[in-house]
Amino acid sequence: MATTTTPFPFRTALVTGASSGIGEELTRRLAADGVSVAVVARRTDLLEQLATELAGVEVITADLGARRGQDDVVDRITDPDRPIDLVVNNAGFGTSGAFVDLDADRLAAEIELNVAALTRISHAALSVMVPRRRGWLLNVSSVASFQPAPRLAVYAATKAYVTSLTESLHEEARGSGVHVTALCPGLTRTEFQSVSSSEHYAEQFPDFVWTAVEDVAAEGLKAVVKNRALAVPGPAYKAFVGAASVTPRWLLRAASARVQRR
Ligand SMILES: NC(=O)c1ccc[n+]([C@@H]2O[C@H](COP(=O)([O-])OP(=O)(O)OC[C@H]3O[C@@H](n4cnc5c(N)ncnc54)[C@H](OP(=O)(O)O)[C@@H]3O)[C@@H](O)[C@H]2O)c1
């Protein structure tokens, strides 16, 4: 018997960090359902490749680590003539290593992208969606947001901010007709591992700990449609997040430090 799926309620979307990994997969899923997607990243060639392959893709080359790139995306989201129904704040990166040994400028750039750009884009999205009483905001956080992560300290701190902000905005948006969701994936094979220099750390984990990028994207979109505050893809990570919420902080810190030392 043929299965039928309900189409997404949004017909236009903007996805940051769409040139690879989770953002690319989100774009493919949305386009497959006929959603028009504005794709944002720095690598224009990869975005243009997506636009050639998929229908309804608009390319926006922007460095979200810079004010100008953030302004371009804010202008596109708030353009009254071309409303965006779904905004996905997905662009982000991490930096692995001992805090004192890492380059301070790189850590500042990480905070600018993961925290500052995401906050400005969330603000722009809600400023047009709330008066419209319609809209969907999906912020990509991480399971790293639920505990400190020695040797990935700034990254985990930025994601703790993203989860906290998004949960607050979810409550503020209650009853407004706007859905706000934090997507918190665990280990997912993308360019993230090479960009963050965390391959050696990541590859120690067995296969069952890895979540497929397709499942992460599907779960994120499902959760924002259902207006869930949090989405944690994969049974292993759901169990981990549940356990982390009742584990004493000292134990969580010690366990996290032990895993990262390996
Ligand atoms: N993979 C995992 O294990 C994992 C786990 C939990 C959470 N996450 C989160 O998932 C999100 C997506 O990461 P991913 O795993 O898909 O990694 P990825 O493959 O490295 O994708 C990151 C995306 O962000 C874009 N980006 C990076 N810096 C940017 C900037 N300054 N301006 C605009 N775009 C920028 C990249 O495009 P350009 O380089 O072309 O600009 C790329 O499209 C991130 O927020 C990450 O923290 C990942």
Topology at a glance:
Layout: E1 12-16, H1 21-32, E2 36-41, H2 44-53, E3 57-61, H3 67-77, E4 86-89, H4 104-132, E5 135-140, H5 153-172, E6 178-183, H6 192-195, H7 199-202, H8 213-225, E7 230-231, H9 235-244, H10 249-261
Parallel strand pairs: 1-2, 1-4, 2-3, 4-5, 5-6, 6-7
Helix pairs in contact: 1-8, 3-4, 4-5
The chain binds NADP nicotinamide-adenine-dinucleotide phosphate.
NADP nicotinamide-adenine-dinucleotide phosphate binds at residues 16-23, 41-43, 62-65, 90-93, 113, 140, 142, 185, 187-188, 190-192, 195.
3D architecture notes:
The chain is of the alpha/beta class and 262 residues long. It contains ten helices and seven strands. The chain has a seven-stranded parallel beta sheet, sandwiched between helices. Helix 1 (21-32) packs across helix 8. The mean pLDDT is 95. NADP nicotinamide-adenine-dinucleotide phosphate (NAP) is lined by residues 16-23, 41-43, 62-65, 90-93, 113, 140, 142, 185, 187-188, 190-192, 195.
